[in-house]
Amino acid sequence: MIRSEGLRLLDAFATRAGVRYGKTRNFDWGPNRRNNVSRLSPYIRHRLVLEQEVLEATLQHHMPEDASKFIQEVFWRAYFKGWLEHRPTVWADYCSGVRKLMDSLGKDSALGERFSDAVNGRTGIECFDDWANELVETGYLHNHARMWFASIWIYTLELPWELGADFFYRHLLDGDPASNTCSWRWVCGLHTKGKTYLARASNIARYTDNRFNPEGQLATRALPLRETREHLLRDLPPPGKLSGNGPLALLVTEEDCCPESLTGPGRLSEIVGITLTSRRSPLPVAQPVIDFARAAVSDALDRASDAFECPATCIDPGNDMENVIQWAKDRGVKEIATAYAAVGPVADVLSEIEVRLAEHDVRLIQLRRSYDEACWPHATRGYFKLRQHIPGILRQLRVRAQVA
């Protein structure tokens, strides 16, 4: 079971999430030596392992101050999700930008060739080419390598950042619409306006243990990019509430694969799962990414079926969602509960489904987890605003250190 794999990784890493992690986490020693990081990101991203479970396991072995670097990394994901939830137009503009650039690739032969060289590891910059190949082959890159890669993509290769973000999103097992989009925007000076990230050869050499040293190959200036639209802050949408009237079903998506711990479903008549990984991009999404998401949803359905003692099935949503609508009509359900999907392709599809279901007098209710409820209100500006609230959030969630 894929959740069990994630829990085993968490159990193995939790003892190493303290001071040692803080000192070594920035080193990319290569794909065969990852013992300085948790490797939990694909499981956390799909909520096969919940953030609260990660925090609780960490604080069973470490005091908060000793594990502060790892705890902060866990909260970075919540920050980006909350930040994008407050500014959904950022996601809409990114999607629009990707579609326009995809059209340009076929018309601009020079851009198309440079793009092809980058994603196929043919730029002549050894570190960049190795990272491009590692991403495609493994579905993973070290976080520091992701920053270097994005910087080289934008400032050295002078490629559009949206195409780089799309390349990551199509190949990362932990590809997350908020973390991925906002991280690329941060590198190019859009997330924190005017603040860019410039990859330096000396930094790469140091933190790869001299595996790479692209001296003289990298851009030496990183001028911030600009955008014309001002992305206005919106209030968070209210979480859904079940009425308890009529037959109730549960919908599982790849955004949250721990349905058995989702509060609120009550007595269920049936459970259904859908995967929407192909909606990440106009280009084909990597097969390992699709396979991981499918396995995550399948595992979630098995656990939910046992927990709620009702049948579970996975269906193909179809291009127009008609299969989902027909399934609801055939089952005669009046309400469908699902875990709240933060801004991204799954949320976009759920919005379509909600409208279509309402036409048949069926309500789709998105239930938001207490972790998101605690974190997202503090994600309106920079990360520091959320970071200073971490102790209070841990108390609110009743996550306390178990060590003396």
Q: Quote the distance from N terminus to C terminus.
A: 34 Å
Question: What ranges have pLDDT less than 50 throughout 5 or more consecutive residues?
Answer: none
In terms of quaternary structure, the protein is single chain
Helix proportion range? 40-55%
Largest sheet: 5 strands, parallel
Second rung of CATH, namely the architecture of the largest domain: Orthogonal Bundle
Structural class: mainly alpha
Question: What characteristics describe this protein?
Answer:
single chain; 404 residues; mainly alpha; Serine Threonine Protein Phosphatase 5, Tetratricopeptide repeat; DNA Cyclobutane Dipyrimidine Photolyase, subunit A, domain 3; Rossmann fold; 3 domains; 5-stranded parallel beta sheet; 18 helices; 50% helix
Secondary-structure map:
Blueprint: H1 2-14, H2 19-24, H3 41-45, H4 51-59, H5 68-86, H6 88-107, H7 109-119, H8 126-138, H9 143-156, H10 161-171, H11 177-187, H12 201-207, E1 248-252, E2 270-273, H13 287-308, E3 312-314, H14 322-331, E4 335-339, H15 345-358, E5 363-367, H16 370-375, H17 383-387, H18 390-396
Parallel strand pairs: 1-2, 1-4, 2-3, 4-5
